[in-house]
Amino acid sequence: MMTQEMIPMIVDLPDDFRKIIRELKIRPMNIYELRNATGLDERKLGDALNRMRSLNIISYDEHFNISLVEKTYKPRRLR
């Protein structure tokens, strides 16, 4: 399961993104479960998921479950 430290939160994320990320931190979901959990209509949810996928925030598995992409980079140290 993902922890808060694994997913750096950007201050100016859209509210739709925040709702989706909050629900996907619990467990991977299909689009119907995610729609019910977030309360977003189909069009807004689809647009948000397409943008999040293009930004490499989420991914789909072979059964079309949506999950967060694990970030494996390390933050750079300030010198």
Q: Provide the structure class.
A: mainly alpha
Give helix % range: 40-55%
Overall 3D shape: globular
CATH architectural category of one domain: Orthogonal Bundle
Strand content: 5-15%
Integer average pLDDT: 83
Radius of gyration: 13 Å
The CATH class of one domain is identified as: Mainly Alpha
Low-confidence stretches: none
| Spatial ordering of strands, largest sheet | 1-2
Beta strand count: 2
- Listing every helix as H and every strand as E from the N terminus to the C terminus, the arrangement reads HHHEE
End-to-end distance: 32 Å
Give the number of helices: 3
Can you describe what's shown?
With 79 residues, the chain is mostly helical. It has a domain at 14-68: Arc Repressor Mutant, subunit A (Orthogonal Bundle). 42% of the residues lie in helices and 8% in strands. The chain is built from three helices and two strands; from the N terminus they run αααββ. It has helices spanning 15-26, 31-38, 42-54; strands at 58-60, 66-68. It has a two-stranded antiparallel ribbon with strand order 1-2. β1 and β2 (66-68) form a beta hairpin. The protein is globular. The mean pLDDT is 83.
Characteristic key phrases:
Arc Repressor Mutant, subunit A, 3 helices, 8% strand, 79 residues, Transcriptional regulator, single chain, 42% helix, two-stranded antiparallel sheet, mainly alpha
Task: Give the topology, please.
Elements: H1 15-26, H2 31-38, H3 42-54, E1 58-60, E2 66-68
Structure, briefly:
The chain is mainly α. It has three helices and two strands. The chain has a domain at 14-68: Arc Repressor Mutant, subunit A (Orthogonal Bundle).
